[in-house]
Amino acid sequence: MQDIRLYIGAATTFTTWGILPLVNSTSIEIVTAMEAELPDGSGGRMVAWRSDDGADGVLHRAEHPTILADLGDGTTMSISYEPYYAGLATGAIAALKPMLQRLFEQQNLDLKAYVEGLH
Question: Is 37 inside a domain boundary?
Fold first, then answer.
């Protein structure tokens, strides 16, 4: 297994499947936050990354925070969202909103199940 070390500013390759039928897409994502524990004392953890469109955000800008909090009863609260900011590709991304919403919801459910399976 490959040893992967993440840190603020780390560039990672992100591959998606299913946004467009029969097409995989690959993007570079930059880690922007890694909180071992949120400062509000909730016990939650957060990681976030932003897209790098290779054009300094001219095509699109997006960031994806994911927050996980142990509820203490063997379950985990998972909050995940992705705001998109203005860019030349914003219209095309908006057209994909229903598919993106469905895939992000599934990703969040999968992550929640994985984390709860670690207990």
Answer: yes
